[in-house]
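Question: Hello, beginner here. Any chance you could explain the protein record under this note? Any guidance would be welcome.
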Amino acid sequence: MKIKKKYGLWTSIAMVVGVVIGSGVFFKADDVLALTNGNLILALLAWIIGAFSMIFGALVFSDFAHRIQYVNGVVDYSEVAYGKKIGYIVGWFKWTVYYSPLSAILAWVSAMYTLILFNHHNPANSYFTWLLAFIYLTLGYVMNYYSPLLAGKFQVTTTIIKLIPLTLIAIVGIIVGLHNDILINHITTAVTTVQNKTGSLTSAVVSTAFAYEGWIVATTINHEIIDSKKNLPKALVMGTMIVFIVYVTYFLGIAAVLSPDIILIEGDNAIKLAAKTLFGNIASVLITSFVVVSCLGTLNGLIISSIRTPLSLAIRNQGIKPKLLAIIHPKTTMPPISTLFALIFSSLYLFIWYGSLNNWFGQFIAIDEIPIVLIYGLYIFLYVWYIKTYKELSILKRYIIPILAIFGSIIILYGGITNPSIGYYLIISIVIILLGLIFYRE
C-alpha cells in the first residue's frame, strides 16, 4: 500500500517556512551577537551570509525537485548523482544523525519556552523541562501517525501563528527604534567599533545556519505532494525568501528595542523583554505563547521528516527490517514501525542532549549545530554534480547560483571545523554510519 498524495502548495510552503522559523531565530539571536562580540553590524552580516546557503541552495534543489521525484528528496538526488550506496548512506545519515537529534533539540526548546512562559526559575535544565520535552516529542509522533492530515493542518496553522510575534516585533520595533533614534545609535556604535569587535564571524554564521536550517525538509514529502514537480519548487523558493525577509527584519526590530548588551544578558528571554517593552506585560505573555507554538510547529515538521526517512530506505529494501518498516497501515495510511523507530531514535538523542548539558561527557557536544555543518558538506557534492551534469542550463542557473550555494556551504563548514566538540560528534557520526552499512543490501 502506498502513502496517498495529500499535501498542497500551502502545506509545502508551511513545511519550509514552518520548520525553518521555529526556535533558532529566538534562541540564536544572542548567540550570534556573542560570537561577534556584541557588534550589531557583524551580527547582521552573519544573518545575511547564513542566508546565502539557504536561498541559493533552495534554488538548486528546486530544480532537482522538478527533475527527480521518487520517495525522499535528498536521498533520491544523492542516489541519482552518486549511486545506490551513497543514496542509502545519505538516507541513513539524515535519519539517525540529522532529523533525530534536531527533533530532540526542538522538543527541548519547546519545553524550555513553555517554562519561560510560566516564569520557571530554571527553564533550560529542570526535571520539568525534560519531562515536558519527552511528552511533546511523543505527542508529536502520535499525532503524525494517527492523523497525518491534522499534522499538515497543524503545520500550516503554526506557521501563520509564528509569523505574528516576529512580524510585530520587526515592524513596530523598527518604527519605534527609528522614531527614538535608538536603532540609528546602535548601528552607529556598531560601525565605529567594528574593527575592535570582530569576534568570530564564521562561527556566528554557523549559529545562524541552525536558525536557517530546515528548508530541505519539504523534499521528504515530495511523493505526498499534489503535483509535486510544480508545487515543491515553488515552495522551496517562496518559503526561503519569506524566511530571509522575516529573520533580518526581526533581528533589526529586536536590536531597535534592546541594546546588544541587554540582548546578551537576557539571552533566550530577550524576545519576552522586547515584547514587554513594546506592548506591555499582557502582550509579552501572549507573544511568548506564540513562540511556544512556533517551536512546536518546527518540531512537527521535523517529526514529519523523521518518520518518512526510514520509510524511504525501507521502500528501497534497505535499512533495519525493511519489510516491517515499509508496512503502511490501511486506516492511518502511515507506517507504524517507521514511526516507532523514529520516536526511539529521537528519544535517545534527547537523553544524549540531557547528558551534554549536564556535563556527562566531560565536554559539551553540540548536537544542535554539528549535524547541520555535516549536511552542508553533502550539499556541496550535490551542487558540484549539478554543475557537471545539467549542461543545457543558462550560465546563471548552471554556474552562478550553485557556486553561490557552495560559497555559503563552505563558510558554514569552515565555521563548524572551529567548534571544539566537532571531533566527538564526527566520531559518533562515523560510528553510526558504519553501523548503518551493516543493513545495506546490494
In short: The chain has one domain: 9-77+141-338+368-420. The CA atoms of residues 70 and 76 lie 6 Å apart.
